[in-house]
Amino acid sequence: MNSDDNTGKFDEGFDWGFTAVTLDELDVIQETTAQLEEQGAKLEESDAESSDLRNRLDKVYAAIQPLLNNLRADRDKDYIYWKGEDRFQKIEQFSDRLDAIYAGNTDS
After folding, report:
1. Per residue in 18-41, pLDDT tens?
2. Of 87, 89, 98, nearest in space to 64 by CA
3. Beta-carbon neighbour count of residue 63 at 10 Å?
4. How far, in Å, CA of 98 to CA of 75, rounded?
5. pLDDT band at 53, cuts 50/70/90?
6. Is 15 within the bounds of a domain?
7. Cα 86 from chain centre
8. For the packed helices 84-103 and 23-73, what is the interaxial angle rounded to 10 degrees?
9. How far apart are the C-alpha atoms of 96 and 102, rounded to whole Å?
10. Measuring CA to CA, which of 25, 28, 78, 94 is 20 to 30 A from 61?
11. Number of structural domains in the chain
């Protein structure tokens, strides 16, 4: 079979997936691709930071909500009884917990 026998019998519907470009066009494509990859990496980093901050905010909310629920529990009472030493210890523990959440140093 000789190559001349197949002339005009090509499948024109098949696309090899490439485009011929000049050297200048290739430079632009490569530069644009590099910029897009860099922006994609920045977006992924930003998304991770956003997720971390959302997680911390959820932890702060979860830490404060029990206090508000306790304060709301007996609204017909005008006073809160909380011994001084107990109060100090609980406030210090809670402050440490908030510091850890703020710094991102907690898993709970």
Report:
1. 889 899 999 999 999 999 999 998
2. 98
3. 15
4. 27
5. very high
6. no
7. 39
8. 170
9. 10
10. 78
11. 1
Using 50, 70 and 90 to split pLDDT, how confident is the model at 101?
very high
Q: Is residue 18 part of a domain?
A: no
Give first-to-last CA distance, the chain, whole Å. Answer: 75
Q: Does residue 12 belong to any structural domain of this protein?
A: no
Domain that holds residue 83: 23-103
Residue 10 amino acid letter? F
In degrees and rounded to multiples of 5, residue 35 shows phi and psi of -65, -40
The distance of Cα 72 from the centroid of its chain, to the nearest Å, equals: 34
Instruction: Determine the residue type at 93.
Output: Q
Q: In one letter, which amino acid is 99?
A: D
DSSP string, 50-77: HHHHHHHHHHHHHHHHHHHHHHHHTTT-
1: its two tokens: 């079979």
